Amino acid sequence: MKNLVYESLDELYEAKKVPTTKKGKEKKFKKTMGEWKEGELNIGKSNKKVPKSKKGQKQAVAIALSQTGRSNKK
Known about the structure:
Oligomer: single chain
Shape: globular
Distance between the termini: 31 Å
């Protein structure tokens, strides 16, 4: 079982594969939104796809922000 306590943010980013540079975050965000537009973006680990509606677009943005590590800002 993987240890869920991380010594630093670097370990957390490495474990989650979160991009650390601004350019990397932008690239990951665009890739995720592209997946949504093509209908390939999944909700969580399930095989359910994010719908192509306004609500689905908001979900896709939330997923993309989460994957890039931007959703943790206060």
